[in-house]
Amino acid sequence: MLNVIYALFFRELKTRFGANRHLGYLWVVGEPMTIILIITIIGTVIREFHHQVMPEGISIFMFLISGIMPFFMFRSIVIQLMNGIGANLALFAYKPVKPIHVFIARALLEFCIYFVIFIVVLFFAGWFFHLEVIPRDFLGVSFCIFLLFCSSFSLGICFAVVWHFVEPLRTLLVYFSVVVYWTSAIILPTWLTPRFLLDILYYNPLLHVIELLRYYFFENYPLADDYNNYYIIFWIIFLLFIGLVVYYYNRQALTAVRKE
């Protein structure tokens, strides 16, 4: 199994960056630089309101980076797992290769890509903009990123099976990332969110992990509610159980559909 995942990982790596490998690697760095440019423009526009929006010691730039980059990783893993079965149909003719191997390889690849992107973004933010980019609690931030990885993997498996069999739901799943993006405090700080709306968003497990990630990253970060890791861990276990059970009982059906 490890050999299969290893081979799939590097196959996906080559496919991900296309035929021009050097241009693909350059884009890995160019994409976050584009994001930084956009965020810098936004930060410049609202700079005069900085002290009214952000607590002391937290820049808007780093606030946005600490939410956008982890969310991009989460979204990319879910999308890649959803498309994993259809993109590897020819490989499933070989008995050792199973869809679960593709899921693992794709999830690990996206994690590695966005981990490198995050490090590069932090390096440029610290080097050129002289911002504080070292988390105050490195282990806490790492654990939150690990929870994001696990949640995206478990959710991706569920969506992959649904995406493969239930055509009418495909459109709804496409809009899922948009909904999650605007309900997880990626852009708008929780302390600026109306209380009645925050009480509803509290049930979003991704909001918990994003807020805790920022709490571990910044000094004096204000938590608007009692966010905790146990809530997101519960959802990870629940979704992973559902996803693996659905996958296990449909693995033969997946093979049958592929052969047709």
Describe this protein's structure:
This protein has one domain. 75% of the residues lie in helices and 0% in strands. It has 12 helices and no strands. The chain has helices spanning 2-17, 21-45, 50-53, 60-82, 84-87, 99-128, 138-165, 170-174, 176-183, 195-201, 205-217, 229-259. The longest helix has 31 residues, at 229-259. The radius of gyration is 20 Å and the shape is globular. The two termini are 26 Å apart. The mean pLDDT is 83.
Uncertain runs are none
Quaternary status: single chain
Radius of gyration from the alpha-carbon trace, in angstroms? 20 Å
Secondary-structure content class: mainly alpha
Number of helices: 12
Overall shape: it is globular
**How many separate structural domains?**
1
Largest sheet: none
Q: What proportion strand?
A: under 5%
Mean pLDDT: 83
E-strand count: 0
What portion of residues is helical? Answer: over 70%
SSE sequence, one letter per element: HHHHHHHHHHHH
Distance between the termini: 26 Å
